[in-house]
Prior knowledge:
This protein has a domain at about 200-330. Strands 1-2 form a two-stranded parallel ribbon. It has about 325 residues and is mainly α. It has helices at about 5-10, 20-25, 40-45, 50-60, 65-75, 80-95, 105-120, 125-130, 140-150, 155-165, 165-170, 180-185, 190-200, 205, 225-230, 235-245, 265-270, 275-285, 290-300, 300-315; strands at about 250, 285.
Amino acid sequence: MFNETILHKLANQKDVKKEMFFEHLDLGADVNQVDLMKDSPIGLLLYNKREDIVEAILEKYPKSVNPSLFLRDILNILNEKEKKKHLKIFQNFMKKNDLYNNPTKKFSEQVVKIGKRAAEDGESGLVMELLKIQVTNRSKLFKGVFSAAFKTGDIKLVEKLFNEHKNQLRVAIENDDGLLHHACKNGDYFLTIFALKHFSSDTEYFISGEELKGRNEVLTYPPLSWAVFSKNKKVIFEMVDTIYAQGVQKINFLANNTKEKQYDPLAIALHSRDYDISEFLLNNGYFTNQYVFKNLREERAEDGAKLEMLATMNTESTFKDITLKKNMPF
């Protein structure tokens, strides 16, 4: 196999002895060399359950092992029982080389990347271990793992991270990370509540999309629009309820001069023929701008007529002045 070294061949031998590795390492063989499949000799030894040889190499040649590659190899092991065993080996390796307190800049950068991937894969044990490392940019590490866990909907890891590292996370996470947006997009009620409680305070952040557009793809739509896309009525109700709790008298979505009607929650509901959601928005003080209303009527007569009927049913004023009391949860 291309790039396969003598150490790769030894790692795949069933009855290989540690002394055979020592012989080649003494001659300058590179234990960090990867083959065409991106496998390292250490990774192959872990996969083949030869932790005894890995520990022997770490004991005798601690400086020869790349900690970033070692971390990646552990992450690639799918068996949870084996992974726990490998984490203990990693801990000993880190302590012996004082890498928890004094990681190199390059290793710090790799920890941030691996931490994010570990969180995306739900590897909570590895994530919590990585957070012990005093990397150069700890804020970036915390932000990466928490955002990844949040966006994948891993509520257990989110709560564990928040409970154990609340202060660091409050510093690392900002509104423009889109945590509330992702929760609404996924229709995840529990994470929506979590984001509203701990990370979101700006009313404009809930209902405006123009200023946020372009900074992050998920921020193109405000959370209320994502909630309507998700069709989760509990999430929609929670968003509307929170907006009113902020003291908003009526929800006027987007500026009057906008030409992007697709971001309007009411337009989204109507185009999806979710008339119960449309009626809920109207019954809760929602009104849209005239550009959206005009184009909906021209684009889909049935939806336009339905919207006009809903408006007539729920208010004595004209459509332009719709402001309705908030009294109709699903």
